[in-house]
Specification:
This protein has seven helices and 16 strands. It has about 250 residues and is α+β, with helices and mostly antiparallel strands. The longest helix has 16 residues.
Length: about 250
């Protein structure tokens, strides 16, 4: 398992499925360990409340976890690893393209691709696995409403000529092909404020004004988006201003 760098805490972290929390990795423990991938995949399937055995589609990179009902139709849930490596992303991309899209599909991404010009084929949607997990005490579960919401948003008209798309409540945002999903109310309000400003042609907004407009008690965006290191890939800031990175 490759730990992720947390810009806020300035430490490497990994998600412990036993303790259902992110754990800091001391520098002296940064070594290579063997991961029981099959066990992890089955555990995520259980968190999603799905039955049946996960089906490997591409080595240790992509699995079909099963199907679930989305209204009156079925949708498929996938798990993908190492999408932050371009050669792995390409393999997953090609596999999904060959698979087709007989049913809508969501890919839980364990390791997000870098950059903003990234999109899966045939309308498959991508969600950060970290964002899709809800921690409840000493256990955790998959946020099924978030997963379904991403697919529901996929059914809405999208302007292919626009580099920016968002769901009506700003919980899902796509910039140049990369999908971001947020659940925090204040986070969505900030994103909505910046998106509407961008649409008006006022891309740069004073950060303090934005925080006051959404009535946030946070003193900075980093505090409001704590625990979401990828927010910096969506929002730029500098000299007291912030903006959507389009």
């Amino acid at each position: 398992m490759e730990p992720e760098w947390n810009e806020e805490t300035r430490t490497y972290q990994y998600f412990s499925f036993d303790d259902c929390m992110w754990v800091d990795v001391p520098e002296e423990d940064m070594k290579t360990y063997n991961l029981e991938v099959d066990r992890l995949v089955r555990h995520i399937r259980d968190l999603a409340g799905l039955d049946g055995e996960p089906r490997g589609l591409r080595g240790n990179l992509l699995w079909n976890l099963g199907t679930f009902w989305l209204g009156k139709r079925k949708a498929t849930l996938f798990l993908a690893r190492r999408l932050d490596r371009i050669e792995c992303f390409d393999e997953v991309f090609d596999t999904l393209k060959r698979l087709g899209n007989k049913t809508p599909g969501v890919v839980l991404a364990w390791g997000l691709p870098q950059g903003r010009h990234v999109e899966l084929p045939l309308g498959y949607r991508m969600v950060n696995l970290r964002d899709a997990l809800i921690v409840e005490g000493d256990s955790c579960r998959l946020d099924q409403e978030m997963v379904k919401g991403v697919l529901t948003g996929a059914g809405q008209p999208v302007d292919d000529l626009s580099p920016l798309w968002s769901s009506p409540d700003y919980s899902a945002v796509r910039v140049n092909g990369r999908e971001f999903v947020f659940t925090g109310l204040k986070q969505k309000q900030v994103i909505g404020f910046l998106i509407e400003a961008w649409k008006r042609g006022d891309a740069r907004c004073r950060t303090q004004v934005v925080l006051e407009e959404v009535e946030s008690s946070a003193d900075a965006l980093g505090q409001l988006f704590r625990g979401r290191p990828d927010w910096r890939d969506l929002i730029g800031q500098g000299d007291g201003f912030c903006w959507i990175k389009v």
